[in-house]
Design goal:
This protein folds into two domains: 164 residues, START domain (Alpha-D-Glucose-1,6-Bisphosphate, Chain A, domain 4); 163 residues, START domain (Alpha-D-Glucose-1,6-Bisphosphate, Chain A, domain 4). The protein contains eight helices and 14 strands. It has a seven-stranded antiparallel sheet with strand order 1-7-6-5-4-3-2. A seven-stranded antiparallel sheet has the order 8-14-13-12-11-10-9. The longest helix is centred in the last third of the chain and has 34 residues.
Length: 337
């Protein structure tokens, strides 16, 4: 099929300092907690200036659904359409001129390349102009529709960064990262199997009431959960994409529908085996939903209290799950002896 290179470039004003916005663009590993469409970013190589990344992202229609659905809830997550794309990207960082040059290639269709550059130009002490130029090969037979999609993609990406950068003054208070660890005297394979089979958690993990799982592509799970791990025993519904890496002993996830105090939540289950067992780590990266603090926790509640509240809630749920994974692995080993 013949194709033609299409270039599109747009800019948008951002209510944040240029240095803050450039830093957000440069730190791609943190994009899952900032940008609704990004599920996970894996840094494969980095020398301080050039880097190679593997990225997983919601496809355009799913990402748009996600952003629109949760915008009414004041968050950055949303309803998941279910299609996840994967890309390899090469990027060159230019902090001196606040630019990031990139070239990304579809992991499924090698040869399908999109290239471009992010740019940030100061427009005052606390304002800047964010630009994105993209070039991609579009099929001639569907030129008009493909061109509109390419233009919409640029606008969508600019809007996501602008929205995230708008919180710059309170990011230190809104963001929190933490992890829980459990030591298990059992094989890593049994532990991973328990964590992977999330569809079987109802009836096994007390706080999980319902679990729906779809895995159209091996290793990519689209999950919906109803759980009662929230304080007061109320049921909370969430949706997530989970990327499963059995050979590496990792399951990475991004919630696409969040609730309550959480605006964005990504995390990872990782297994660290040794000679006699395995240490399992549950890591969380969270952005709080500031406007929900008073409504959920009561008028006058501050962000510090909200941080403690969310950390205790998520930690309780993950440690309960890890405890049951421990019981599953160790009891299976005992039965086999």
């Amino acid at each position: 099929m013949s194709s033609r290179v299409h270039a599109c470039e747009h800019t948008v004003g951002v209510a944040a300092p240029a240095g803050v916005v450039y830093g957000m663009l440069a730190d791609a590993v943190r994009w899952p907690v900032f940008l609704p469409s990004v599920v996970h970013v894996e840094r494969l190589d980095f020398d301080g200036v050039q880097e190679r990344l593997r990225m997983w992202e919601l496809a355009d229609d799913a990402a748009a659904d996600a952003a629109d659905a949760n915008a009414g809830a004041g968050g950055v997550g949303g309803v998941l359409g279910g299609r996840v794309g994967s890309w390899y990207a090469r990027r060159v960082l230019h902090p001196d001129v606040r630019a990031v040059v990139f070239e990304q290639e579809d992991a499924v269709w090698p040869g399908s390349v999109t290239s471009g550059v992010w740019s940030v130009r100061p427009a005052g002490e606390a304002e800047c102009v964010l630009g994105l130029r993209q070039e991609c090969g579009l099929p001639v037979a569907a030129a008009d529709g493909a061109r509109r999609e390419a233009e919409a993609d640029v606008h969508r990406r600019l809007a996501q960064v602008r929205r995230a950068a708008g919180w710059w003054e309170r990011l230190d208070e809104l963001l929190l990262s933490f992890e829980d660890r459990v030591r298990i005297e059992g094989p890593a394979e049994l532990v991973y199997d328990f964590l992977y089979r999330i569809g079987e958690w109802p009836g096994r993990v007390p706080h999980v009431e319902r679990a729906g799982v779809r895995e159209d592509v091996p290793g990519i799970q689209v999950v919906s959960l109803d759980s009662c791990a929230a304080p007061g025993g109320r049921t909370v519904s969430t949706r997530a994409v989970r990327l499963c890496f059995p050979h590496a002993g990792r399951i990475v996830y991004k919630e696409t529908l969040t609730s309550g105090l959480i605006a964005a939540h990504s995390g990872e289950w990782s297994l660290l085996p040794d000679a006699s067992g395995v240490t399992v780590v549950a890591a969380h990266q969270v952005m709080l939903r500031q406007e929900a603090v008073g409504r959920v926790l009561g008028a006058g509640t501050g962000l510090l209290e909200a941080r403690d509240h969310v950390r205790a809630w998520l930690s309780r749920a993950s440690t309960e799950t890890l405890g049951l994974a421990k019981w599953h692995a160790e009891s299976t080993v005992r039965r086999l002896r």
